[in-house]
Specification:
The structure holds three protein chains of three kinds. The longest helix of chain A is centred in the middle third of the chain and has 18 residues. By secondary structure, chain A is α+β, with helices and mostly antiparallel strands. Chain A is built from ten helices and 19 strands. The chains are: A alpha+beta, B alpha/beta, C mainly alpha. Chains B and C meet through helix 1, helix 2, strand 2, helix 4 and strand 6 of B and helix 3, helix 6, helix 11, helix 12 and helix 16 of C.
């Protein structure tokens, strides 16, 4: 259980700046996720923590001690790579045991046994990695990383190569294991659903910078930047101009319609161009809420537990997520009205 | 793209190769140094002037390679040459045994009568000599003073000559073979094997061929090498150096005679005879000494003074007759190999 | 209907053509020669072969041949692996050029290498002279030559580049995640290398080592020049039987035994290779560290290694060059251009096409033709081996590699003999030489391309075909560019073989067709050792230049843009 702190870390690759002055602290035993689109710098940040890259500026501290002068083999981090990188010339058992060969005082056989049980793969010790399925390989990679009792666990998009069902079940397993071991964990993914499901906190990154750090709820319900608002959750985006700012509410003119918005984190003035973010599930298929908008049904997507309906409005395409019963009464081409409450629309100025 | 054009080139070349022009020509197989630096250019020019024929010297390798080539071709019924120049006396039994050459007389080759008798080692004269020398030892006088050189075979065994001797492999070099035969002549069969066993500690290495051995010698790796008694003439005339000197063992040297012959099946026997006669003429024989660095076969030839002064005629030259070599050579080589192998 | 038939016929022809070529030009002449070793008066007999094994001397020779080859290969690996590492990990100026140049020693005719070694490492060589001068010693401190040591040293120098090439080609595409995993798990550099990296590099290493072993096994001039007759190998014996004694029966028996051993060894290697090649993740680029900045102890060791092995490589060649610009006159050593003017002088030129410039051109032309033909023959065969799984595939693989393990003296004799009669009455000359060189060279193309082809994902070809490309187009647009590295390596090796080939060429050459090695040989036979060094220096220069050009040009020929339209 170790605290991981990054202070003003910057990393350049030639002309490109991959990571710009990143600072955050992961508490001991915390499950922290680095979330962002491809190229945002999250993998680079992870590799910096592991020691495979050296920062051009800033410091990285484990329990308040800088580790910059330590090579990866001395940092005692457990790392799971995106490609798992299981040694093909060794058996499962030999792979898992590998990290133990350099640590003394650990009963090897028992430990391997325990770990394989933990990931649900006991009985497969003698197999070669080429004989395993993708999900099994991922679990071996995890067991291998955990075997030498690392201080921190680092995972670089470990589930991205798996199918949806497997992803879900494995992420639960990863989460459960982390809880059991109370191991400080830093997890990299581009899948926000994953991040929301298992993280204690999420660090949302974009273009090398941190957009927001917060709990899943905070990220979801109270995004602090336009990027976060659009990245997290399934969101609709509308644009308009501020016409009035009153105590607690803002009026925005978008086309022929005027919206009233009461959740605005950033100060705006009349005349500002702004973007409105409304989550799919917050749009109602009736006129009963504060802001109303006409729309025409384009298509329906059945998702099992919910249905998504695509609409065309004068302000652009919209998506609404609702229950099947609500939507089944609608037909394609129908003109309807949708609405949303003033406190569910999130407003940010656009540049 | 690159490959396609290469293929076309190949086909084109094949076609060109087939369109061989056929003028009257006389093909001579010989060894490369004769063709490039030896008397060949002179012979070609002079002979072509006198007779209307295109003389072609083919010399892609050493004499033994060329002989093998000729033998292979003869086996297939298509010998590629009319004349062969360069059969060494140690290879006589092999060459003659294959019945490759045409027997000759003094009528065919008038100049044959001027050749030293002791050089006519083929009774049928299918192969006649054009030059000769003697295999001896050559030493570096800057390393070995004249008082220190061995004078007999027995003295050569002295431990003070440890690792000073460069020899040639009799299996791959005619010079090396000559030296081996010399020891057989001296110590008999199988006594020579014992001699070699005792000689080995003094041997630095046994090289593939004469040029490799001489190369090592010139590079000063060791001060004694088996070579020709005409070498000193070369170093004096060509290099202005009296550094290298001849060492005779038991006042002997082993004869090394080089022969030429007319290939059976040639369509130009008359012209071939003229060519061989021309090679034995004084014009050509005079060139032998300073291009081949050998003694001319024609005893009436005058030698350049420096050559005469510096090349050495051993008082007692020796040679094992070809018939004896023929029957025993493979056994000798095997036994010898068995003795020297290892290291 | 017809179209499909033609297509299938075309495809079959693509495979059948090179095979037919091999059967006609290689197996047929060879078997003609071999049958002399097993036939006596019309019946098959093992008398000659048995005779070889019964003779203790021959047994000793066979064992020694294997022994020196094994030691040489080991030393070549010890030199070659660190160089592969240096090329993989570091970036430094002229890296690509240096990589092209490491092949040069392989090209040089063995006599040049041998002479260079003697001049540099000999008892009176430059190295010993330097050491004696520096430390005021009386006698030479390093007695390396004329012994097994000398042979092994020269072989290692000659063959280490093969190992470096094969290993590097694989290493630079190895996914760094394997090593990084091990690193995160606590493994230090050395352990990482031996336990993770090396096992994954085994296929490349084994290929390089197997090739090196075979060359050392067949080596002839180097063994003789640097060891002497006391260290005879099977090849020497074959030469003796064919050329000196004109004894075809025993010579053929020896050649059969030699090739049988080589084939056995090749088969064993191919069996093992199958076990060691794994599905390893490949990457398209691996980051490198600049060597010239930020000095560390590790880099210091690298520099030391580069320095010492550089000495090993360059020393002999530098000595040859030095020899070409000096001569002895009246007991002193003077600098001179005498030898260069000697080999260019008109008297020499007027002769039967022995002009040095002409021989340079000959060598290059022959080399390019042989390279082209070897690629044409080798590529389809490599394809068959890599892509199709059929019974006896490994045996097939072994048999097509046969020309590597055959004595070049025997091959020269076999080809000469075969070309003199129907059905192959080609005589000697250009075509015969190109054919001989291609035969000797095509196995390199196969060995270089097969591993790359096997590593290619089949899915790529399928994707192309689903987009409408025919099989041939898919090959041209997808596979060819991706295997270009392998193909280039193979082609360059083929070129190398052709340039340095001597034994078979001598048998098949004609006036006007001398190659550079033949001219070097001639010069030495004519006592012109300085001239030989001058010619050798020219040879080194030309071949080094040719390699650099081929590699640059080849990259552009196969790389990307030309094919993407």
């Amino acid at each position: 259980m170790v605290q991981v702190k990054l202070a003003g870390v910057t990393k350049r690759f030639g002309e490109t700046v991959a990571v710009k002055e990143i600072s955050f602290t992961a508490s001991p035993g915390e499950f922290l996720t680095l979330l962002g689109p491809s190229g945002c710098g999250k993998t680079t940040t992870l590799r910096l923590i592991a020691g495979f890259e050296q920062p051009d500026a800033g410091d990285i501290l484990f329990d308040r001690r800088s580790v910059l002068s330590d090579p990866p083999e001395r940092r005692r981090v457990g790392m799971v790579f995106q490609s798992y990188a299981l040694f093909p010339h060794m058996s499962v058992k030999q792979n898992v045991v590998y990290g133990l060969r350099f640590r003394r005082g650990i009963e090897k056989r028992a430990r391997v046994q325990k770990l394989l049980e933990m990931v649900g793969l006991d009985g497969l010790e003698q197999r070669s990695p080429t004989e395993l399925s993708a999900g099994q390989r991922q679990r071996v990679a995890l067991a291998r990383a955990l075997a030498p009792q690392p201080r921190i666990l680092l995972l670089d998009e470990p589930l991205s190569a798996l199918d949806a069902k497997l992803r879900e079940s494995l992420r639960t397993q990863v989460h459960r294991i982390q809880r059991e071991l109370t191991l400080s964990t830093i997890y990299v993914t581009h899948d926000q659903e994953e991040a929301l499901a298992i993280s204690d906190r999420i660090v949302i990154m974009n273009e090398g910078r941190i957009e927001q750090i917060g709990t899943p709820q905070e990220a979801y319900e109270r995004p602090q930047t336009a990027f976060v608002a659009s990245f997290i959750g399934r969101t609709n985006r509308l644009e308009g101009e501020v016409v009035a700012v009153e105590q607690g509410t803002v009026r925005v003119q978008a086309g022929d319609v005027t919206f009233v918005v009461s959740a605005c984190r950033v100060p705006v003035t009349v005349g500002d161009r702004v973007a409105l973010f409304i989550k799919e599930e917050h749009l109602q298929l009736d006129e009963r809420s504060d802001n109303v908008l006409p729309a025409r049904v384009i298509s329906l997507e059945y998702h099992g537990e919910a249905t998504v309906i695509h609409l065309e409005s004068p302000l652009g395409l919209l998506r609404v997520r609702a229950s099947y019963t609500e939507i089944s009464v609608l037909s394609v081409g129908e003109q309807i009205k949708v609405s949303f409450p003033a406190d569910k629309a999130i407003l940010f100025p656009v540049i | 793209m690159q490959k396609r054009s290469l293929l076309l080139i190949l086909i084109a070349l094949m076609v060109i190769g087939v369109i061989g022009v056929g003028t009257e020509k006389l093909v001579v197989y010989t060894y490369s140094s004769f063709a490039s630096w030896g008397a060949a250019p002179f012979i070609e020019e002079a002979f072509e002037k006198k007779h209307d024929v295109d003389v072609q010297f083919v010399a892609t390798g050493d004499a033994r390679m060329m002989l093998t080539k000729l033998l292979t071709e003869q086996e297939a019924g298509r010998p590629g040459a009319d004349v062969f120049i360069g059969v060494g006396s140690v290879d006589l039994s092999m060459a003659r045994g294959e019945g490759l050459f045409v027997p000759l007389t003094g009528e065919d080759i008038p100049n044959l009568t001027s050749v030293r008798e002791d050089l006519l080692i083929d009774p049928t004269n299918s192969l006649i000599p054009y030059e000769h020398s003697y295999i001896t030892l050559v030493y570096d006088s800057q390393v070995l003073a004249v008082e220190d050189i061995p004078l007999t075979f027995e003295q050569l065994l002295d431990p003070k000559y440890k690792k000073m001797l460069i020899l040639e492999d009799p299996r791959t070099s005619s010079v090396g073979l000559a030296f081996l035969l010399w020891t057989i002549h001296q110590y008999g069969d199988p006594g020579y094997l014992d001699y070699w066993r005792k000689l080995l500690p003094n041997v630095l290495t046994i090289t593939q061929g004469w040029s490799a051995a001489y190369d090592l010698f010139l590079a000063r790796e060791a001060p004694i090498v088996v070579s020709f008694s005409t070498d000193t003439a070369y170093s004096v005339i060509e290099e202005g150096s009296t550094r290298y000197k001849i060492m005779l063992l038991n006042s002997q040297g082993y004869r090394s005679i080089y022969l030429m012959g007319i290939v059976k099946g040639t369509k130009q026997q008359g012209l071939c005879k003229e060519l061989l006669d021309f090679v034995l003429s004084s014009e050509v024989q005079e060139m032998i000494s300073t291009t081949e660095w050998m003694f001319p076969a024609n005893r009436e030839t005058l030698l350049p003074v420096l050559f005469y002064q510096n090349a050495v005629f051993p008082p007692d030259p020796v040679m094992i007759p070809a018939e004896r070599i023929g029957g025993n050579l493979d056994r000798w080589l095997l036994e010898w190999a068995g003795v020297i192998v290892g290291g | 209907m017809w179209e499909a038939r033609i297509k299938r016929f075309g495809r079959a022809a693509l495979i059948a053509a090179p095979l037919a070529f091999l059967v006609l030009i290689f197996y047929y002449p060879l078997l003609r020669l071999f049958q002399e070793g097993v036939v006596q008066e019309g019946h098959l007999t093992l008398k000659y072969i048995g005779g070889v094994f019964a003779e203790p001397y021959f047994r000793h020779v066979i064992l020694f041949t294997a022994e020196q080859a094994l030691l040489s290969t080991l030393l070549a690996m010890i030199i070659g692996l660190p160089w592969a590492y240096i090329f993989t990990r570091y970036q430094f100026p002229l890296k690509e050029t240096l990589r092209s140049l490491t092949i040069v020693p392989f090209v040089l005719p063995s006599i040049t290498v041998a002479v260079g070694f003697i001049l540099f490492f000999g008892n009176n060589g430059h190295l010993n002279q330097l050491l004696m001068g520096l430390f005021g010693l009386k006698g030479p401190p390093l007695r390396l030559l004329y012994s097994l040591k000398g042979i092994v040293l020269a072989h290692a120098f000659y063959n280490a580049p093969i190992i470096t090439r094969m290993v590097h080609a694989q290493w630079e595409r190895l996914n760094p995640a394997y090593e990084e995993s091990a690193q995160a798990l606590g493994a230090g550099r050395i352990r990482r290398f031996f336990e993770v990296t090396l096992p994954l590099l085994l296929p490349g290493l084994m290929t390089g080592a197997a090739l090196a072993f075979i060359f050392c096994f067949l080596s002839f001039p180097i063994v003789l020049a640097l060891g002497g007759a006391r260290f005879s190998t099977i090849e020497v014996e074959i030469y003796t039987q064919f050329i000196v004694l004109y004894q075809h029966k025993l010579g053929a028996a020896l050649a059969i035994i030699q090739i049988a051993l080589s084939l056995l060894f090749t088969y064993g290697y191919i069996l093992l290779e199958g076990r060691f090649t794994r599905e390893v993740e490949v990457t398209y680029s691996r980051s490198t560290v600049p060597l010239l900045r930020r000095f560390t102890l590790g880099k210091g060791i690298v520099w030391l290694f580069i320095g010492i092995s550089g000495l090993l490589f360059l020393g002999p060649m530098a000595s040859v060059f030095y020899d070409s610009i000096t001569r002895e006159w009246a007991g002193r050593t003077v600098f001179t251009l005498h030898w260069y003017s000697y080999i260019f002088q008109s008297q020499y030129e007027a002769l039967i096409g022995a002009a040095p410039l002409r021989s340079v051109v000959n060598s290059l032309q022959l080399g390019l033709s042989a390279m082209g033909l070897a690629s044409l023959v080798g590529l389809p065969i490599a394809f068959v081996i890599a892509r199709y799984r059929f019974r006896g595939r490994r045996l097939f693989d072994t048999l097509v590699m046969a020309s590597l393990g055959v004595s070049s003296v025997a091959l020269g004799a076999a080809l000469l003999s075969a070309f003199l009669r129907p059905p192959l009455e080609l005589g000697s000359g250009w075509l015969a030489i190109v054919l001989a060189h291609s035969i000797l060279a095509y196995p390199f193309v196969i060995r270089a391309v097969v591993p790359v082809l096997e590593g290619l994902k089949q899915g790529l070809v399928e994707a192309a075909r689903s987009l409408g490309a025919t099989r041939l187009q898919a090959f041209r647009d997808i596979e060819l560019p991706l295997i270009r590295r392998g193909l280039l390596v193979g082609a360059i090796f083929a070129f190398a073989i052709s340039l340095g080939e001597m034994s078979a060429t001598i048998m098949l050459a004609q006036p006007g067709l001398k190659t550079m090695p033949l001219v070097v040989n001639d010069l030495r036979a004519a006592r012109s050792f300085g001239g030989a060094s001058a010619m050798s220096s020219l040879l080194i220069l030309v071949t080094a230049g040719a390699f650099v050009i081929i590699e640059r040009f080849g990259e552009r020929l196969f790389g990307g843009t030309r094919w993407s339209r």
